[in-house]
Design a protein that fits this description.
- The chain is globular and about 50 Å long.
- Helix 1 crosses helix 7.
- It has one domain.
- The protein has 197 residues and is mostly helical.
- 15% of the residues are buried.
- The chain contains eight helices and no strands.
Length: 197
């Protein structure tokens, strides 16, 4: 489940939707390289954070609030600071992407434009309410983090399939094969994690 949650956190369905909207009309090659750079960058940051955390937490788990301080004794103060900055930047970017995607979904679903402030506030409340409810019911912050990313991963095949469908006519043979393989892989991972429990 954790591996699938990491996939959901890295590939963020909302990011695929927002990126497709923001790059509409962009040259295909520029779009492809930009997407590859974004995904490789996100993967590298996630991998480095996981390697640091795994190395530092090898002897036992800590609370999510203590996690940024864990690399300090092992790697030094700068590592702890950079780990904290990476967590904060990842949180801010995920939050911003989520809110902006919510604004677009409101607009496309209703066919109307909302005030930016009202749409962002509504999207923020929709994003945060389930997490706050889970925390209030006694879930740990780590559980909330893992389960929310897991749910994102379960939604990912739908978003990927739609993106493949919409861009099918623009893809060459290699692009089509890669898009289908990626969608099948993510779907298989989700199904396996769901069945294996």
């Amino acid at each position: 489940m954790v591996a699938v949650a990491i996939m959901g956190a890295t590939l963020m369905p909302r990011a695929l939707f927002l990126h497709s909207h923001l790059t509409h009309g962009m040259d295909r090659r520029v779009h492809m390289w930009q997407t590859l750079a974004n995904l490789l960058g996100a993967s590298a940051i996630n991998a480095s954070m996981q390697i640091v955390a795994t190395t530092a937490l090898f002897r036992g788990a800590v609370d999510l609030g203590e996690a940024p301080a864990v690399p300090g004794p092992l790697f030094g103060g700068l590592a702890a600071f950079l780990f904290s900055v990476a967590l904060f930047a990842a949180s801010l970017s995920a939050s911003a992407v989520s809110v902006e995607t919510g604004v677009l979904v409101f607009r496309y679903a209703t066919g109307r434009r909302f005030s930016a402030a009202a749409a962002r506030l509504t999207a923020r409340l929709v994003n945060i309410a389930p997490a706050l409810a889970a925390l209030h019911l006694g879930a740990s912050p780590v559980e909330v983090l893992v389960y929310t990313q897991y749910v994102l991963s379960l939604v990912l095949p739908v978003v990927m399939a739609a993106a493949v469908r919409w861009s099918w006519h623009m893809l060459g043979a290699v692009g089509r094969a890669a898009a289908l393989a990626g969608t099948v892989f993510v779907t298989a991972m989700d199904l396996y994690s769901f069945v294996a429990g």
